[in-house]
Amino acid sequence: MTVTSKMNSVSRQSVLSRLGPGGLLYAANKIIAVASGKEDERWRGKDEGALFKRWRRTPSSVQSAPAVPAPATPPSSDLLKFLAINALELSAPASDALLKSRSSEWFQLSGHPGSLAPAGPGTVWKRRAPGDHPAHNPERDAYEALAACPHMRSAIPRYYRELEYGGEHFIELQDLLHGFRDPHVMDIKMGTRTFLEDEVCNARARPDLYDKMVRLDPNAPTESEHAARAVTKLRYMQFREQRSSSAEQGFRIEAVKLPGQPPLTDLQKVREPHQLAATIARFLGNDERARRAIVSRLREIRDLFERSEFFRTHEIVGSSIFIIYDDERVGAWLIDFAKTRRVPENIVVNHRALWKQGNHEEGFLYGLDRLINIIETANLSKIGDEATEEPDVTR
C-alpha cells in the first residue's frame, strides 16, 4: 500500500466513523444523487434557505394543489413511519434516493414542514427549532441531559449527536417505529399549558388575536373584549387550550393511526372524558394485553420522571408521549423538548399544581395521572383472548 493510499484509507475510516447511525445511508444516497446529475439546490425552497424542498413531488398540472389524501389501503410501513415522523415534526426524506422510493406513498399530515427527516435505518434528523438563538438549543440540551440521566434515558428516544449540514443544525435521534410491524400509533400532547410564559408576558391587547378568536368561536370574547375588539396573547392562548382537553385534563390526543386505516388527526375537539375514553378504546380495540403493557410503561415513565433531578428543575412545555404497539411489542416514550426550560433557582415545580403566571407549572404529571386512569378504565369493545403471552414492552 502506498503512503497516499494508506492516508486515503485512514481518511475514509475517519469520515465513516464520524457519520454515525444513519449518516452512512445518507452519504450513499448523496453519492447516488450526484452521480445522476442532481444538485443539492433542488432541496432548497424558493422563498427560504431551508435544507429540504417539499418532499412530495406532484405533476406540474397540480403543483398548487393541497397534499394528496391517503390511498384507500395505504402501504402500512411507510404510512406509519410518516405518522411517527409527523409526531416528531418530520417532513422530508434526506436524499433523492429516499424521495424516489417513497414519493408515491407518503403525504403531508400536519406539523412543521421541513423540521426533520429520515436519516437511515433506525434514525432521524431533527432541525433546530425556529427562533432559537444560534448559541442556544434547548432541545439538544434536554436530550443530552436526559440521555446522561440514569433514570430517564430509557424513557426518551435514543440521542446520538448534534450535527450541522448546509449551515443548519440538527440532532440525530432514534426512529421509534423502527422494528415495529404494522402497529397502532398514538401521539399525545401533555400538560395543561403548552406555551411558554415568556410568550405571553406582553399584556398589550391585539386586534389580530381577537379576529382569530372570533373566527374560531364568535361567542368566546367577553363584552369588554368585543367592545375593544382586541385580546391579549395570554387570553388567546388559554382560549386555545380550553378548546381541547389540555386545560381540563392535562393532555390532548394529537393523532391516532390504526392498522389498515387512514390516520385520525382532527381530534382537537375531543375534550370531554367520555370522548377521550372512546378514542382510547378505539385505539386499543380488544387488546387487553396492550392496555396492561401501556399502563405499566406509563407508570414506569411517571416514576422515572418523579425521581429525575432534571424534571425537578425544568418546566416541560409542549412535550408529547408517543405510544406504539403491534402484535408482539409495546413502546411509549417522551418526545419533543423544544420548549423545555430551566426554572429560576427560587422556583420549585411539581408538575401537578395549577399554573399561575410566574410559577412555571405546566401540568405534565397532572395530565399523565389522568391519561393513565382513562386508559385503565376505558370500556373496550370486546375482551380478547388473554391466553396468549404478554407483549414485550420496548424501551
From TrEMBL:
GO terms for cellular component: cytoplasm; nucleus. The lineage of its organism: Eukaryota, Metazoa, Ecdysozoa, Arthropoda, Hexapoda. InterPro entries: IPK (IPR005522), IPK_sf (IPR038286). PANTHER family: INOSITOL POLYPHOSPHATE KINASE, KINASE. Keywords: Kinase, Transferase. Belongs to the inositol phosphokinase (IPK) family. One of its GO terms (biological process) is inositol phosphate biosynthetic process. One of its GO terms (molecular function) is inositol hexakisphosphate kinase activity. This is Kinase. Its EC number is 2.7.-.-. It is an enzyme of class 2 (transferase).
